[in-house]
Amino acid sequence: MDASTITPYIDSTRDVFRTMLGLPVTCGCPVHVRKVGAGDADVSGIIGMSGDVRGTVVLAFPMATAIGVVSRFAACSPDPESDDFADAVGELVNMISGAAKAKFDGRIVSISCPSVILGRGHRIQQMSDSIATRIPCGSECGPFAVEVAIRVAIPAVADVEARRLSA
Question: What is the DSSP string of 1-66?
């Protein structure tokens, strides 16, 4: 993946955390990894992408960071076992992915409903032929990561225009 594919996720993560949580985020250097969700997260929000951009986006937290982030987002302290906690994590990955999707100019992209996995050391399996990029992030609530395992299809200009007109 090149910078034009990863930058929308970095920018969107910073924007969503700043505007929705009042929480500045620092993003480290993106690292290519063979597998997303390598087992160091306790809470992961996952969203699928389809169309001209296909794959998954994962927002992965240690539990302490997830609790801090969700508490700021929800303006309360929901129990990590509650549906509200999972819904908040799902909504954050949804907002990040939606904002990034909007930056893929000229491409038709859809995102799925988010899923949330809770559990120490869980692993997420993505498409076997994709390489993931892990964006390490930090905030005053703690560290977390955005993991992007997508492939960008480059359709012919005529195909893009035809799909845009039919949409």
Answer: --HHHHHHHHHHHHHHHHHHH----EE---EEESSSS-S--SEEEEEEEEESEEEEEEEEE-HHHH
